[in-house]
Write a structure and sequence with these properties.
about 450 residues, mainly beta, 17-stranded mixed beta sheet, 4-stranded antiparallel beta sheet
């Protein structure tokens, strides 16, 4: 869900089991200190869920590749509101999202949230004030929390534009800070900016953090924004590092595999291989660059052991910021800029061209698809795919994990063109992060990868 990438707007989530969590620590200081401590570690189940109804939801306010055009007037609560319009193609519908259940409030109310390393604002679904106590629901009930507060209009954050936080805000009729979060498909999520604490145990919690309390969007349970923005959960909670293992997708099975999400130290990190984030001065504004994304230096792609003839410069931002390569847990598939994608497609066509489903594009984004229920044979003909980074770091996508079952007997190569999303970046999505530890070591500005088997099911 993502800055130059996308998060998944979820329609009608299934309510998952409450999370269980484990904590390993050498001592138990209170409030924010544990998140700053090297030994802090808390883990949550990470679940993939099927989305039955959904639209591509790249955020208008953080997609740097979108070009402003004349403003557009819409109706919100019966009132006219002027919005900028953008040139984009955002028809693709995701089918999967990564979910963690986070305990929020006092006493805690576990909230299902999309794990999104590509966006800043964290927000939860809030229940409107009820006339009487309702039965338990997935939505957060502010009236039940003693640590909940709403930001007033005079709060410094409640400004229309802040350099690294471009969330449009206004004063509502109660003089509270109201935000409207618009997505590229025209979806609107709005509510109040609030403060609320995240609690991990009786002795482990954050102070109240700023997040969105959404009341006008029934389309997502919530978003856990984890990018480099100063108001992301990772930044506000001063998380030194976090990591996750995406469980392997089990076709269209309703039995959901379960991975793990760590805040703090991961006991498996001794086996990780690291590459540094690429950083660019925000003062050097580039129209197609997302300065808050986790940008890495990708150097090439191999398919079936053959190195594709792709210039390294294709994976690096040019003078306008196009070509940035980012790791995004909120985007389902991987998307490449035109020059890189064309080389991948040429090789796939060379290897299995006659078996391609002619004239078929899944969701307007994936155009290498196959009929039949034997994707293993196609995978063997293509061979393993390797995404290459600096310092010899690689992401291996085994031949049996190249194709995704999109339904109706169709399997698609899990990679598409960035231009179908209206972005000018290379995005490594969660489909190509399956059974892989991905660690964001924010303190040392690096990302680590390690082999894993996420393995359990729920």
């Amino acid at each position: 869900m993502a800055s130059s990438s996308s998060i998944s707007m979820l329609l009608f989530f299934m309510f998952l089991n409450l999370c269980t969590l484990s904590i390993q620590e050498t001592h138990s200081p209170k409030l924010l200190k544990p998140l700053l401590n090297q030994s802090f570690s808390v883990s949550f189940p990470l679940t993939t869920i099927h989305i039955s109804k959904q639209q591509y939801d790249t955020k208008k306010n953080v997609i740097s590749s979108l070009v402003s055009s004349p403003s557009n007037k819409i109706k919100v609560h019966g009132k006219s509101r002027i919005l900028p319009t953008y040139n984009f193609k955002a028809s693709f519908k995701y089918s999967m999202a990564l979910i963690v259940s986070i305990p929020i409030g006092t006493p805690t109310q576990p909230q299902q949230m999309v794990l999104d390393t590509g966006s800043q604002l964290s927000w939860i679904q809030c229940k409107k004030a009820p006339k009487r106590p309702p039965p338990p629901t997935p939505s957060f009930d502010p009236s039940l929390s003693s640590t909940f507060s709403v930001l007033p209009c005079n709060h410094p954050i409640c400004k229309p534009r802040i350099p690294d936080y471009t969330l449009p805000t206004t004063c509502d009729q109660k003089r509270l800070c109201h935000y409207s979060y618009f997505y590229a498909d025209g979806t609107l999520a709005e509510g109040n900016l609030v403060r609320e604490k995240f609690t991990f145990s009786s002795s482990q919690s954050t102070p109240p953090l700023i997040l969105g309390c959404t009341t006008e969007s029934g389309e997502a349970e919530g978003i856990l924004g984890m990018n480099l923005g100063r108001l992301s959960f990772a930044s506000q909670a001063k998380v030194r590092k976090f990591s996750y293992c995406v469980p392997s997708k089990q076709g269209l099975s309703k039995v959901m595999p379960r991975g793990t999400f760590y805040l703090g130290q991961n006991p498996n990190s001794h086996a990780f291989k690291y590459i540094s984030f690429l950083t660019f001065p925000q003062s050097q504004q580039k129209p197609n660059m997302d300065h808050l994304a986790y940008t890495v230096g990708m150097v090439g792609i191999r398919i079936g052991g053959m190195k594709l003839n792709i210039s390294r410069t294709v994976f690096l931002p040019d003078a306008n910021g196009s070509g940035q390569t980012m790791i995004d847990s909120g985007t389902q598939y991987t998307f490449l800029v035109e020059e890189a994608y064309n080389k991948v497609r040429e090789e796939v066509v060379r290897l299995v061209g006659p078996k391609l489903k002619k004239g078929y594009v899944y969701g307007g984004a994936l155009d290498m698809c196959f009929d039949g229920n034997n994707p293993v044979e196609i995978g063997r003909m293509i061979g393993d795919m390797v995404l290459e980074f600096g310092k010899g770091v690689e992401i291996l996508v085994s031949k049996d994990k190249l194709l995704d079952n999109v339904g109706a007997g169709v399997h698609c190569f899990g990679m598409g063109r960035s231009q179908t999303l209206g972005v000018a970046s290379n995005i490594i999505g969660n489909f190509h992060q399956q059974n892989l530890w991905v660690e964001f070591d924010v303190a040392n500005r690096r990302v680590g990868f390690g082999k894993a088997n996420c393995g359990t099911t729920v």
